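This entry is retained here.
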Amino acid sequence: MAKTLPKVDVLTVGVGWAGGIIAAECAKNGLNVVGLERGGNRNTEDFSMIHDELRYAIRYDLMQDVSKETITFRNKLDQRALPMRQLGSFLLGSSVGGSGVHWNGHTFRFLPYDFEIKTKTIEKYGKSKIKDDYLLQDWGITYDELEPYYDTFEKTCGISGEPNPLGGKRSSDYPTPPMKNTVITNKFRDAAKKLNLHPFSLPSANLSEAYTNPDGEKLNACQYCAFCERFGCEYGAKTSPNITVIPTAMKTGKFELRTHANVIEIIHEGGKATGVKYIDTLQGEEFIQPADVVVLTSYVMNNAKLLLVSKLGNPYDPKTGKGVIGKNYSYQLTPGSTGFFEKERFNTYMGAGALGQVVDDFNGDNFDHSNLDFIHGGTLVVSQSGYRPIASNPVPPGTPLWGKEFKEQSIKYYTRTINAGFQGASLPHRDNYLDLDPTFKDAYGVPLLRMTYNFTDQDRKLHEYLTKQSEKIMKEMGADTVMNIGKLVDYNIVPYQTTHNVGGVIMGDDPNISAVNNYSQMWDADNVFVVGASAFPHNSGYNPTGTLGALAYRAAEGIVKYSKNGGQLV
């Protein structure tokens, strides 16, 4: 028998970036907030002497335990999905801070085009440019409407950067200057300018200088140690929820953090949620936590899973095209090229997660698609995040993948290679979606989430185009040998690609084709807000965190209004 606890004003399911922002903003406005996190607590002191590539980068010490909670996967509807037994294609975070602990720190804004992608594409190219089996839709909010929330998130994080010359208008500059340039990033910047492109410094949550944010939280300057992605920051220099919004929430006295609390169901009746049921994973006890407002702030997969398990919202059916929960799951493309340099050596073992240069000339609709058989594009980045010796063994084409020659070439080219990689947009297809697996369950008897996903014709054509652009710039950089990533084949869940999963609980202005409005409030239950990248109707050519953060600040504003106006969001 589950024990029922006293009701609270606001409850968050997950305490990462989204949950931390909601907690901080609601608590600052006098609301009592409880944050339920299924993992344990952790802070900067837990990451002291964390430079252990085997433990963290290879064995994923900070990530989700897939022996207890995983997903099942298939490429097509007529295949049987099987559980993901080890982390690979994407890395699911765990514990307080979530993926905001082990991220690299790239903090982009989506383009104005992204938020009105369907309207703008049709206006410029006509309806025939969008194929019938692609579920492209506007977001129900414009860039200009979201811009103030981007600004707030960047100031909370202290983002170091310079304006994107091809991006949307900004209300203010980044709060801290760009990170240092290196021989590698300068080489890319110079080559890009020769090709009449528009390079700019990668917007970085690895701070270029010490900074105190508007909430009074102090962040330190990056040491360029090269242990960012898959690692926590021992210096408190890579912005995370753990050193910003969570401490801010705690200081109010209005926020209670409960760890090892795995939510298994949203309880609801009459079109409203009354609370959630969760399991104390240490003791095995069940609790019911009532709340006036329930906010799902966990990772993309779990937001969709909880709604499906709780039978809240209409599940998407790819055969009929009806329903919204699980719809528009989108991923990303990673075309690119590696350049091998015979006469130059670089300090590739040094760097930071978001130290780099970017060009946006091939992203969104920044280039003419009239004679191309795809839409959108991607960002091209040359970053110096730091090669680590276990995972980084670059060798030229034709080199054996084991033995004496492999070892000799690995040592030679460890400091003689540069990667130019794209993040390509992912557009929603009617056959790519999330639902509940009919066979497999997690450690608590709850059905696993099933992912049905494969790359599409749009993806393959975009991938081919972007690969050619990466080769051009690598040759301009002076590489003696250029090796590209090859053609795009069927999606495979094993090799790492990107942790930029989006969709499943998408936003819009029409309840028939979206799950939440532009405050992240559910159409089917007005006291349930679903916050995170699960709200993205498609994926752009950027990292999602900046847009996730902006949407979280807007959602927090909506929750405060809803709570203080007697259940009305006006």
